[in-house]
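Write out this protein's structure.
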Amino acid sequence: MQGSISIGSPSGRDFGNPFITNLAGLAGIKQIQGTLDVYYNRLLVDFSGLSGLEEVEGNLIFARNGTIQENNSYEIDLPSLTTVGGGLYLRFSGAVD
């Protein structure tokens, strides 16, 4: 895909998208020729729509999405990802209440 994808609100002021629970709509994307930002989506807990993502030419950012699991962990599984051209940023991905 040419360009960048942003899901949510970078400032957190609007707390992203209050309805998004998964990224199934991104399932066919293998390459992003920009940055992928996913932040402040309080109900987002299913990242499996990104399982086919192989390359992000820019930054890959996940920040404050969903809720922490029972064992105080948070998983984002990207089994096909081989290349991130920019930085990989994981910021506290826990409850945003």
